[in-house]
Every structure is written in C-alpha cells, then in structure tokens.
Amino acid sequence: MPVSALNLLLFALLAVGLFMLMTEPAMAQGQINLSPITNILTGIADTLTGPLGRAMATLAVIGIGAAWLMGYVDFRTVVYVVAGIAIVAGASVIVNAMWGTQ
C-alpha cells in the first residue's frame, strides 16, 4: 500500500505534537543566582544617578563651561557633554517608562 503525501504530513504533525507534549523544562532553568551581579550593577546605577553622580555632573558642567569660555572647546562639545549628563541623569526614568515599573 503506497503512502500518500497527506498521510505522511499527518504523521509528521502527530509526531511533532507528541514531541512538544513530552518536553520538560531545562534542568538549569531557575538555578542561576545572578543577585551578586545585579547588586553590583544596581550599585553603579545608584552611584551615577545619586548624590555622587550629581556632584560629578556639576563639576563636569563647570569644567566644560570654563573650557568653552576660555576657547578650549567649541559649543558643540558643550552641548554633547550636557546632553550626555541629561541622558545619564534621566536613564532610570527612561528605563522605568520602557519596562513599566515603579
């Protein structure tokens, strides 16, 4: 008895369906503890957006402003520095808006 293409397709779909029903979660799923890395990265983010970051940004604006007034840098560089500071300062707000937390 010849095997038709439809019978072969139905058998393949049945085999794939049974295979998908028999799968189990990976053994490593949920076993990785990333809290030390998370703590380090959260500490860096808190440092850059906290009081130390604010003080560093203030000193950067003072330095770039003085350099611009003395002619060492052009206005475009001043704008780049200020835009970079604004992005770093607003990073947590931007990320929270994207992920919808807090």
From TrEMBL:
Keywords: Membrane, Transmembrane, Transmembrane helix. It holds the Pfam family TrbC. The chain crosses the membrane at residues 52-71, 78-99. This is TrbC/VirB2 family protein. It comes from Paracoccus haeundaensis. The lineage of its organism: Bacteria, Pseudomonadati, Pseudomonadota, Alphaproteobacteria, Rhodobacterales.
